[in-house]
Design a protein that fits this description.
The chain is mostly helical and 91 residues long. 66% of the residues lie in helices and 4% in strands. It has 5 helices and 2 strands, in the order H-E-H-H-H-E-H. It has a two-stranded antiparallel sheet with strand order 1-2. It is globular. The N and C termini lie far apart (32 Å).
Length: 91
């Protein structure tokens, strides 16, 4: 596999690892999102000043307001964070 194919496979595997622990295997609940962020993006949580900020982040991931994060929502957020870290996206 190429590097990009590997990255895509890792995104899918990471989502699937955390999804379904509390319900649908196709979505992440608030608790599953929090666990994923704690284990896979610990720097984001360290930057938060309080739990309210973490809750806002989690709530912000749910673009369609169904109280769950599906794979499409997850990928959009990972892409946005990647752009912010890479500092090449237009502002």
């Amino acid at each position: 596999m190429t590097n990009l194919e590997t990255a895509m496979a890792l995104l899918m595997k990471t989502f699937d690892t955390y999804a379904g622990a509390e319900g649908s295997k196709d979505t992440l609940s608030k608790a599953e999102v929090k666990t994923l962020l704690e284990k896979e993006m610990p720097c984001l949580l360290k930057a938060a000043k309080n739990q309210g900020e973490v809750d806002k982040l989690i709530q912000g991931l749910d673009f369609n307001g169904d109280s769950e994060v599906d794979f499409s929502e997850f990928v959009v957020v990972v892409a946005a964070i990647t752009c912010a870290c890479h500092d090449r996206c237009s502002k």
